[in-house]
Amino acid sequence: EARQKYAGEFSNLRDNLITELLKLPGIELNGPTGESRTPDNVSITINNVDQDSLMTALDLAGISASTGSACVSGSSEPSHVIEALGKVNKGESATLRLTLGRNTTMAETKQTSKSIALIIKNLSK
Q: Which terminus has fewer CB within 10 Å in the chain: N or C?
């Protein structure tokens, strides 16, 4: 019951974050949209950005994120999930996974998208 309550809240936060991120240049959403998507997950590919530089900049901005998909968390190898989506070997790009938590607020999702926009601007080649 509590899980369903949080799923609805997560979905609203997730959809807002996705909407804001897709306004940025070079960003592609990985995976389905709507009810087919996990309520607390946002996975994007950012073109023309070095993944290691992105992760460092996110860390310095206080944004916790992962690369690739959850099934290869901690690995530097491309995820078979991301490969199946055709998101690798297209030149330099970074796959970023953001997971929302129980305490995530709408203000935090808006600040995250603004921070990512600034980071992308600074790292784009």
A: N
